[in-house]
């Protein structure tokens, strides 16, 4: 286990905000996870599990506790017939996993290309994009149970996945440390029709390669055009969740002319559309730029503090609510500072 002291949270998160944390404990082997939580317990420190920090926001006050990060690397593959099980250690960078799978012609996660983050965080909010979610292919995860100091396997059914949710960020939030994840992938390719923006891209560019590598290339190109690279422009990706509607609510929305999408993940209105319609796309609020091409993404252009981000967020939420009556919900999690 590597023990680091007084590290700025801004250096550990892609939004680049947040004061110092007392400790950062980096674990490189499953047995060290228990040691890390034991260390925190010994010194009566609160803990927070962090990955790449692409969906996490720090406060200016920092964190007077121990941030624990999974640095375990490695992917092992076991093939039976046309199915391959990949066991991926949680410290692997997620996009390397997609590259590994698509190079083996395995389908199931190619549309999740270029999502920043570590594999251990992927099941937490059930990462999803372009019609795929990790819930579609995840078989089980290996965890350390912080409450009981034991190691366990949780199956997909145990995790109760739904849109951007699992037990890891709802009923059992902060209870488990993900050590590794196991995916079940098959050889082949995604079936048509693909997600709308993929179909549009294929048509515009006259493409015919829909193999996992082909779709990975397409998704990577669409994302590069639309989404800021967090290494160049600090952001936490989609800052707001989409608005999910019941059938009755959807009918009312359609009567008002709002674009309602019916998909396998439910009936939704894209929150980015709502933000565009209130005229905020491309605007700068308190040092936070609302991304021009994908208004769901907030970029930290010159915000000095968490308060700047909060002020921008609250203005966006209020404007959308006043015009449409929908209450936008923040997607990224925040490192608590009450314990500080
Ligand atoms: C430019 C950009 C684009 C993005 N696009 C998408 C997208 O298309 N789809 C999508 O779903 N998301 C997207 N995101 C959000 C983000 O990439 C995902 O949420 C990703 O899974 C975060 O991984 P991370 O390692 O950075 O997690 P972190 O931000 O470090 O952590 C996120 C949550 O997971 C918990 N966690 C992290 N590691 C572990 C672990 N080992 N065990 C237990 N809990 C853990 C943390 O406590 C926290 O609650 C985007 C973000 C950015 C910046």
Keyword list:
3 domains, Uridine Diphospho-n-acetylenolpyruvylglucosamine Reductase, domain 1, four-stranded mixed beta sheet, 340 residues, Uridine Diphospho-n-acetylenolpyruvylglucosamine Reductase, domain 2, binds flavin-adenine dinucleotide, 26% helix, Uridine Diphospho-n-acetylenolpyruvylglucosamine Reductase, domain 3, alpha+beta, six-stranded antiparallel beta sheet
Provide structural commentary.
- It is a single chain.
- With 340 residues, the protein is α+β, with helices and mostly antiparallel strands.
- It has three domains: 2-70, Uridine Diphospho-n-acetylenolpyruvylglucosamine Reductase, domain 2 (2-Layer Sandwich), CATH 3.30.43; 75-187, Uridine Diphospho-n-acetylenolpyruvylglucosamine Reductase, domain 3, CATH 3.30.465; 235-334, Alpha-Beta Complex (Uridine Diphospho-n-acetylenolpyruvylglucosamine Reductase, domain 1).
- Helices cover 26% and strands 29% of the residues.
- It contains eight helices and 21 strands.
- The relative contact order is 0.14.
């Amino acid at each position: 286990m590597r023990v680091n002291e007084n590290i700025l949270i801004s250096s550990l998160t892609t939004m680049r905000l947040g004061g110092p944390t007392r400790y950062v404990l980096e674990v490189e082997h499953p047995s060290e996870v228990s040691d890390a939580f034991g260390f925190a317990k010994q010194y009566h420190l609160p803990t927070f599990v962090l990955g790449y920090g692409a969906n996490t926001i720090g406060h200016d006050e920092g964190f007077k506790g121990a941030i624990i990060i999974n640095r375990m690397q490695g992917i092992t593959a076991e093939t039976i017939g046309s199915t391959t099980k990949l066991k991926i250690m949680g410290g692997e960078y997620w996009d390397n996993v997609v590259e590994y799978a698509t190079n083996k012609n395995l389908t199931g996660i190619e549309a999740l290309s270029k999502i920043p983050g570590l594999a251990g965080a992927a099941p937490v909010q059930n990462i999803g994009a372009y019609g795929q979610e990790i819930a579609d292919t995840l078989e089980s995860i290996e965890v350390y149970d912080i409450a009981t100091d034991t190691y366990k396997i949780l199956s997909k059914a145990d995790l109760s996945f739904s849109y951007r949710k699992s037990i890891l960020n709802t009923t059992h939030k902060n209870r488990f440390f993900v050590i590794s994840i196991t995916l079940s992938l098959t050889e082949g390719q995604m079936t048509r029709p693909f997600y709308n923006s993929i179909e549009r891209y294929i048509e515009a560019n006259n493409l015919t390669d829909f193999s996992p590598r082909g779709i990975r290339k397409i998704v990577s190109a669409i994302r590069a055009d639309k989404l800021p690279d967090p290494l160049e422009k600090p952001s936490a990706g989609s800052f707001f969740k989409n608005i999910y509607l019941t059938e009755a609510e959807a009918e009312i929305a359609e009567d008002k002319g709002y674009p309602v999408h019916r998909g396998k993940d439910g009936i939704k209105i894209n929150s980015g559309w709502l933000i565009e319609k209130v005229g905020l796309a491309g605007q700068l609020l308190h040092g936070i730029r609302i991304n021009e091409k994908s208004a769901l993404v907030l970029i930290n252009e010159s915000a000095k503090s968490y308060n700047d981000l909060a002020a921008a967020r609250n203005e966006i939420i209020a404007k959308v609510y006043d015009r449409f009556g929908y209450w936008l919900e923040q997607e990224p999690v925040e490192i608590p500072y009450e314990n500080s």
